[in-house]
């Protein structure tokens, strides 16, 4: 079953979904957005990025859309991606799952100082 | 130069990945290379890319294993008239290379089987006479093989030129360069520069020169083979010989070490098929995953 490929949702795939939550992006845009939202800790390489994109496309969690005009990036044809409704739902479910984990971690008092 | 190195390294990944996302990966590299300025940033870029390649070559990033070869319509044999075969995109696999090498040796150089460079690991197409087979796109290499000895006529020349153009348009890694090469070929054709060319080898050499004059890509060749190319796989014996040779050659990896100041050094002399050399390549890249700079030396 295809769904197995994204169970559990890999971190890279989750970040890609989050990066597309606010806007449609091409591959490089996704990479930059992920880097930005992780404070530079996650810089997706092309292999990881596009294999994740492929999996997300297969699961219909994102979709490819018509290329947008982007003068900053020259005339190269780029593939843009958009979060689907199913993708948004999955991202929300994953966020809920992580929130639950965070709640448990707090209950277990494993945090210190500001994180509590 | 950096882009070419990265394009070569992409051969470590699954052929299907190269086909689907090779151009996008190179574009992403180009974007990062353009935007990340300074020595440290460039080092970080390479470390990121090599780490990514190592990870993808070993686990999460593989695509399906189905055949990447498809037959192109329109290929046909012209009776006993000398006929070119075209291998589109994906270079011949290891066994085909071995077989081609043996043929070449036996014929003492009269049966040159020119290929781009060592294949990227996909299973080959086994083209039938007059058929056009397609495989890995975004490959910088192009090979054309003729099946029969003898003179070639206008119809065959036309078919070869059309096939070359189709290959370039569909598969060549740099579309703008491909367009220039196509324009050059069409100009030569309009000028009837090929009209007097009736020898297959000379015709292939002429096309090669014209393509390289424009592209300066020495891996891009049009090849002529006077021998009929087998239309069946080489068989287990040929495969076994090639596997053995690759093992002896360590898949082309000659040296991998960490130099002073945490600089990685890789000496490798060829690209073996992914199916056989994935582990070797991944191990080499993994060994260098934490270097701050990298030197590649290749033939």
Report a brief summary of the structure.
The complex is a heterodimer of chains A (116) and B (299). By secondary structure, chain A is mainly α.
Describe the structure.
The complex is a heterodimer of chains A (116) and B (299). In chain A, 48% of the residues lie in helices and 9% in strands. By secondary structure, chain A is mainly α. Chain A has one domain (2-115): Orthogonal Bundle (Arc Repressor Mutant, subunit A). Chain A has a three-stranded antiparallel β-sheet with strand order 1-3-2. In chain A, helix 1 packs across helix 2. The longest helix of chain A is centred in the C-terminal third of the chain and has 23 residues, at 85-107. Chain A starts with 10 loop residues before the first helix and ends in a 9-residue tail after the last helix. The mean pLDDT of chain A is 83. Chain B is an alpha/beta fold and 299 residues long. Chain B has two domains: 2-64 and 250-298, no CATH class; 70-236, no CATH class. In chain B, helix 3 packs across helix 9. Chain B is globular. Chain B starts with a helix and ends with a strand. Residues 64-93 and 110-149 of chain B have low confidence and may be disordered. The chains are: A mainly alpha (116), B alpha/beta (299).
Averaged pLDDT of chain A: 83
The tally of structural domains of chain B comes to 2
- CATH homologous superfamily assignment of chain A: Winged helix-like DNA-binding domain superfamily/Winged helix DNA-binding domain
The CATH architecture of chain A is Orthogonal Bundle
CATH topology of chain A: Arc Repressor Mutant, subunit A
Strand order of the largest sheet of chain B: 1-3-2-4
State the secondary-structure class of chain A.
mainly alpha
Q: If you compute it from the alpha carbons, what radius of gyration of chain B comes out, rounded to the nearest whole angstrom? A: 20 Å
Tally of discrete structural domains of chain A:
1
Principal-axis shape of chain A equals globular
Give Rg of chain A in angstroms.
16 Å
Sheet bearing the most strands of chain B, described?
Answer: 4 strands, mixed
Following the backbone from N to C, one meets helices and strands of chain A in this order, namely HEHHEEH
Helix content range of the residues of chain B, please? 40-55%
Report the CATH C-level class of chain A: Mainly Alpha
Q: Count helical runs of chain A.
A: 4
Report the strand count of chain B.
7
How many strand elements of chain A? Answer: 3
Name the assembly state. Answer: heterodimer
Strand-residue proportion of chain A: 5-15%
Average pLDDT of chain B, rounded to a whole number, is: 71
